[in-house]
């Protein structure tokens, strides 16, 4: 029992470290994609492309303050602790650091600890770490940019099918494939019905792909619960962020949060809903 608690703490700390990297992905990936899309458009128009974007990736340049551009030392980049000690500001210029950074780190740490407590040291834990890390990135990116990049959602779908191919979870490959297909079609049908009734697009195609990818992990039989949780989560987010009528709000975070909750707490949720 002592080892369980010890490793739970270890995975919490690992989650904090991974969360720090996820913050880098959240900040840089949309910029990288935007630069790529602009360059592709310029190539079509036979215009010169941006050369600066070639040296900007997840590893380069070194992390720095966006205001004074001072490079961040390793002791200034300790997850959560550095933020608290620096009172949420850059040590060099006092520029305010977004609260997103410690929130993402803490969220990842808690999720990793829960995953270890649920799965122990296993392939299921490895899959859970990949699954949760990707969803955390998508939650924040969609909130900030209303984008769910294919470069993340499509690999998430295939990785889910791969884990279920080897029966890592209690989902057969057939149910995983059906979950992915039906999940996409379900959202496409809802999208078309809403568009016919309101002449507006209530969701984006990225939502279809995300729902499909999560369904590839959870399987066809969990689709109704996932849709129910996503609907409830969407309403909660709308209340928290005081979304007004006709105001656009990304639905991806609600789908991702629901998938993460169902992945970790399925036994408790099924018991609550009296699902055998």
Number of strands: 0
- Beta content: under 5%
Average pLDDT value?
Answer: 90
CA-CA gap between termini: 29 Å
Number of helices: 9
Low-confidence stretches: none
Structural class: mainly alpha
The structural domain count equals 2
Q: Give the biggest sheet.
A: none
Label the overall shape.
globular
Order of helices and strands: HHHHHHHHH
Any idea what the radius of gyration is? 20 Å
Considering DSSP H and I runs of 4 or more, what fraction of the residues is helical? 55-70%
Give an overview in words.
The chain is mostly helical. The chain has two domains: about 1-120, no CATH class; about 120-275, no CATH class. It has helices at about 1-45, 80-85, 100-120, 125-145, 150-165, 175-200, 205-220, 225-240, 250-270. It has nine helices and no strands.
How are the elements arranged and paired?
Blueprint (H helix, E strand, L loop, with lengths): L1 H43 L36 H5 L14 H20 L3 H23 L4 H16 L7 H26 L6 H14 L4 H18 L11 H21 L4
Summarize, please.
The protein has 276 residues and is mainly α.
Based on the model shown, name its key terms.
mainly alpha, 276 residues
């Amino acid at each position: 029992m002592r080892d369980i608690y010890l490793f739970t703490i270890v995975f919490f700390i690992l989650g904090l470290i991974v969360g720090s990297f996820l913050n880098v992905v959240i900040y840089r990936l949309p910029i990288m994609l935007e630069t790529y899309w602009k360059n592709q458009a310029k190539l079509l128009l036979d215009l010169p492309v941006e050369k600066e974007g070639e040296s900007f990736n997840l590893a380069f340049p070194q992390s720095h303050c966006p205001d004074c551009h001072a490079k961040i030392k390793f002791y200034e980049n300790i997850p959560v602790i550095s933020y608290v000690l620096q009172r949420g500001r850059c040590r060099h210029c006092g520029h305010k650091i977004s609260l997103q950074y410690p929130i993402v780190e803490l969220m990842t740490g808690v999720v990793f600890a829960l995953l270890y407590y649920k799965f122990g040291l296993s392939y299921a834990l490895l899959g859970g770490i990949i699954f949760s890390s990707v969803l955390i990135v998508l939650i924040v990116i969609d909130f900030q940019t209303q984008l769910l990049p294919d470069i993340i959602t499509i690999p998430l779908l295939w990785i889910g099918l791969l884990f279920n191919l080897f029966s890592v979870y209690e989902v057969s490959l057939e149910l995983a494939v059906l979950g992915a297909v039906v999940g996409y079609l379900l959202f496409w049908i809802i999208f078309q019905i809403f568009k016919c009734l309101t002449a507006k697009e209530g969701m984006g195609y990225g939502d279809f792909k995300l729902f499909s990818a999560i369904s590839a992990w959870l399987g066809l039989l969990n689709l109704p619960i996932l849709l129910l949780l996503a609907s409830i989560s969407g309403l909660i987010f709308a209340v928290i962020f005081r979304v007004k009528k006709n105001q656009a709000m990304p639905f991806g975070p609600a789908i991702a949060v629901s998938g993460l909750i169902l992945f970790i707490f399925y036994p408790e949720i099924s018991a609550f809903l009296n699902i055998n």
